[in-house]
Amino acid sequence: MNEPTPRAANATAARRRGRPPRAESADTRDRILTAARAEFSERGYEKTSVRGIAKAAGVDSALVHHYFGTKEQVFEAAIEVAFAPALNAPNAVADGPLDGVGERLTRFIFGVWDNPTTRTPLLAIVRSAVNNETAAAVFRRLVASQLLRRVAAQVDLPDAELRAELAAAQLVGAAMMRYVIKLEPLASADLEQIIARVAPVVQGHLTNP
Q: Which one of 9, 36, 74, 156 has the lowest number of neighbouring Cβ atoms within 10 Å?
């Protein structure tokens, strides 16, 4: 068997160190995002590093920077994917009459939190946002641009953005107490009972004069 020439060996090494072929790009990006979500979830924002994400994904740190940029940008990309189920909330607002919007939105949001598959990444996001101002700023930006403004656009009433923010505060606060702080008896209360009590408040924020 012929041995590779030094030039061929150097070219192969350069390809390994550099950017992956285009066919591998999507898979590499997904691996980085998966590793980032796991690292942020386990370590929080402050203790997570781009080097640690790269190691967990099995890539060079330069590739993380290539695809996403700074750690803040990696965090934003990772939580946007994890937060995606909650971003369908505006559809729940639009799907039906205005007098039932509070119940639909409350049921949808608590459904996302009550599902272990979607709850785990949400917990990681919230914990990072609570403990670090940079992470909190990213979270606020995502919630404002992707969720609250879209909900407000469905509620064609004066002060729509304020109404949407108050409704979100009610929902996020209740979810935090139930799933993060785990305050009893809220933490173990029947979900239908919680929806029945929270939904009218959300309805009031969105539609009352």
A: 156
